[in-house]
Amino acid sequence: MVMKLNYRFFIFLFVLIFSLFFLVLKTIDFSLKKYTRHHSIIYVPSLVGLSLPEAKDTLDKYNLQCIVLDSAAYDPSYHRGTIVLHTPKANSEVKPGRKVYLTINPLTIQYVSLPDLNNKSLRQGISLLENHAFRIGDLHYVDYFAKDLIRFTKSDSNIVQKGDTLPKFSIIDLYVGDGFSKTVIVPDVVGLKYQQIKKKLNNYSLNLGEVEIDTIVLDTMNAFVHEQKPVSNEKVPIGSYVSITIKESRN
Do residue 75 and residue 61 come from a single domain? Predict the structure, then answer.
């Protein structure tokens, strides 16, 4: 009789402990999901064409933050002072509180002269363009014995030369010598911050391709590269594009 009671007691104790353990796990899981807003997904609205105040009001309604990156090269397709680009783009799935980076059409068109880039090294050319408020576009490699020597430049598919006046922040594509090299080795960019990637790839004669943004990222510019394609140490044609996936943490 005593053994039978002990047996029932142990079964009861086991069921009780298991139930308590299960309850604790569910409580923790519920708390974490609530803390991380697991079920809260927001679709980024389209802000292109809106004025800055309109964009800010719209983002406030969606519980999203607004960060103005800079003015872009003037785009006559949009009114001055309106949004021409934003990251993440429209319909991207994000968490509440996500930072949305805005690029604005300039209110006034400021023109700057293109510096002398002829026969400059790639690094010199990039530095000169940045110092003159231009944006670096893509690298295109042409047959020439001196590798990474600038042969000519284009803006909006048109050849531009020293002294040409262009809208401030215009994107300049660089056509440089390939040194008769046809392939390069892809560097390892995993773990680097997004804002470091383009310059790093350019230094290896490569271009930044598509950028996939993890939905939990709250700060794109300071997010870390989680994956890259092609992977590091792979041999690819010179001037190839490397696509990346970024997320909030380095791990």
Answer: yes
